[in-house]
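sorry for the late reply, my laptop died twice this morning and i had to redo everyting from scratch. anyway the thing you sent over, i finally got around to it. pasting the sequence first so we're on the same page, its 286 residues, then the predicted structure underneath. double check i copied it right bc i was rushing
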Amino acid sequence: MSRITTTFEKLKSEKRKALIPFVTAGYPYPDITPALMAGLVDAGADVIELGVPFSDPSADGPVIQAAGDKALAAGIGLKQVLAMVREFRQRNQTTPVVLMGYANPIERYDQLHGHGAGKPGDPAPDAAESAFVRDAAAAGVDGVLVVDYPPEECQQFAARLRAQGMDLIFLLAPTSTDERMAQVARLASGYVYYVSLKGVTGSGALDTSAVQAMLPRIRQHVKIPVGVGFGIRDAETAKAVGESADAVVIGSRILQLIGDKPHAQVVTVAMDFLRSIRRALDSLEG
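ok and here's the structure:
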C-alpha cells in the first residue's frame, strides 16, 4: 500500500479531509523547498504536491508560470527537484510527496541518465528501464501527476510506477466525459485531481455548487479519493469544497503570498496561511 493510500485511509477513519498544498520546487529561493515542505506539514498538510519547473506549461496560470520561470533561471531542473525530495525525506518519512509537471522534463531525464523510457505508450520491459522512475522511487516520491500524459498513452508508465510503489495521478475537468472518467479510473491510483475551472491555475471564480454537483458523477466511475483544486484561495472556499471533496488542493495563493517575502519569512508566511485552511477543513462535521 502506497503512502498516499495509507494517508487517505487514515484521514477517512478520522472523518477528516486531506489538505494538499502545491509549491513550485526552488521558489522563491533555490534552497528553500525542503524547509518549506516541512513547514507545510507542520501547518497541517497531508500530502505535498511539488511542481517541477518547466518552460512551456499548458495548465499553469501566471502565478505558477512566473514561479517556474524564476526557479528555472536559478538552475532548478528535475535532478534538483529529486534532491529536494531526498532532503525532505531525511526529516519526514510519512508525508506523501507528489511531483506535478509535464512530460518533457521526465523524458529528457531518461535520455540524459541512460535508461530511455521511450514514449509513454511504448512497450517497456520493466520499471528499471526508466531512470526517472528508478530515481524518483529512490528519492522518496510517492506519486506523479503529468499534465500532458493522457490515460490512453500511459499504461506502461503507470505499470512502471506501480512496480516501484508509486501512484499515477490524473486530472479530470468539468468537460470530462463519462468515457474519459472510466479511462482514468482504470489507471489512476492514489487520488484523482478534479480541476474545478475551465482554465488555468489561479483563474476565475470558483463555483462551489458546480463542484458539488460534479463529484457524484465522477464517483460513479472513480473509486479512489477525489481532490479538488484550481481557484481555491481562502478558508471559505476550501471549506465549501471540502464538504463534498476528499481533498482540497491549493497552490497559486501560497505562491502569491511567499513570492516577495525575504528568505527568513517564507516558511512562516506559508504556514500561517495553511493553518487557516486546516482549521476550516477541520471544522467540517464528519
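Residues 263-282 form the longest helix (20 residues).
thats about all i looked at so far, will dig more tmrw
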